[in-house]
Write a structure and sequence with these properties.
The chain is about 40% helix and about 20% strand. It contains four helices and three strands. A hairpin with a 6-residue loop joins strand 1 and strand 2. Belongs to the UPF0213 family.
Length: about 90
């Protein structure tokens, strides 16, 4: 049986003013897409390319629920999550 992996992630721009939350089954591919600007939209418009946070799940429904929790929560809750894992806001996927 194949082990599925899903990721909830937070990206920011270079000056850390914008936060973007997403979910994917291939974190490396998805971050590369954000960085190359292949999709029109928010991340391309605001140059949101720096991976600063992620969580891994084996259940897609749990990952989607977590993404929705982040998106409906305050900016402070996102900042708190990042601070708990990556207080220096280092790039997690060079």
């Amino acid at each position: 049986m194949r082990h599925h992996r899903y990721f909830v992630y937070i990206l920011t721009n270079q000056n850390h003013m914008v936060l973007y939350v997403g979910v994917t089954n291939d974190l490396g591919r998805r971050v590369t897409e954000h960085r190359s600007g292949v999709h029109q939209g928010f991340t391309k418009r605001y140059n949101v390319t720096k991976l600063i946070y992620f969580e891994e799940y084996t259940d897609i429904n749990a990952a989607i629920a977590r993404e929705k929790q982040f998106k409906s929560g305050s900016r402070q809750k996102k900042l708190d999550a990042v601070a708990s894992l990556n207080p220096n806001w280092d790039e997690l996927l060079p």
